[in-house]
Amino acid sequence: MSPPPPPLGRPRKRAALALDPALDDAELVAARAALIQGRWGAVRTLLAETGDDWDLRGHRLVVLGREPAAAAWAQDWRLVEPESRDAGTLLACALVFRALRGKARPQKAEAACRASAAAAPADPTPWLAQLLLARSLGAEEDVVRLFDQVRHRHPEHHHAHHLILARLAERRPGAGQDPLHEVYDFAAWAAEQAPADSPLAVLPVIAHAERYRVLAAAGSESVIPQDSGHWAGRRARQVMKAAFDWWLEWEREDHPRGRIDLNFLAHAKFCEGRAAEAAALFHRIGPYATEAPWSYPDRDPRDAFEWARAAALGSA
Prior knowledge:
The protein is mostly helical. The chain has two domains: 16-167, Serine Threonine Protein Phosphatase 5, Tetratricopeptide repeat; 185-316, no CATH class. The chain contains 16 helices and no strands. It has helices at residues 26-36, 41-50, 54-65, 70-80, 85-100, 106-119, 125-137, 140-153, 158-168, 182-193, 203-218, 234-250, 258-272, 275-285, 291-294, 301-315. Helix 8 runs antiparallel to helix 9 (158-168).
């Protein structure tokens, strides 16, 4: 199946790249701006409207928690509404990011996550926050345990699957190109377990990019992704084709993290040398570039994205 054609008409000036983890969630962007100014009521309304859409809730709370002032305003919110589970979860997410920046003790963040999880047993988001912390600072058994807690509450949790793939990819960095590496097996298994329309179908592409990050950092692959043989093997080509075919059939415009998948898929198609398919994906991405995987292994993501987009659109 051929990729969809680019939009007709005169080319318009492209919008500036966002590189914003909020992606295309305009309501989240507005609530975050209000939170920065101390108006946490907008966040309360946003999270109430989000309900138990767990992927959307996790996405929004993680983005809000990244803000340096989020912990202070979440604490103010809790003083006014001490029983608010949303305030407690926002505080937990904010403390996790403070701990990752070295501004708070990890134990304090973990305690906030446990309290949030106890207050909202069905919500995977407090466990996601702990998983974010363990992904960088914890032992692998903790990462696996926390992933299981998230998956128990939401088997298709998008962000949690990305986090555990990134950690699994870091096993045995000196093994080189091993098509049987566990990150590939796990990604294939998780994709097969998910419903046909689930964006987890793209997980094998994510696994491939994460493993490239590790191999390039270890010196066994070129630091220029498109010059690496990592994308040229038979298994790699099969993975990229299957994911692109899934996108053509099931494109999920409604998923809050869908632009992340599109960025990984565009990156893979560009590195594979499939300019026309990459161009179709760049059109769908619009200005919503993401740091990963364009920063892999140690590149400026904005420059890498813009260069790849220009090259793909120029040759498509």
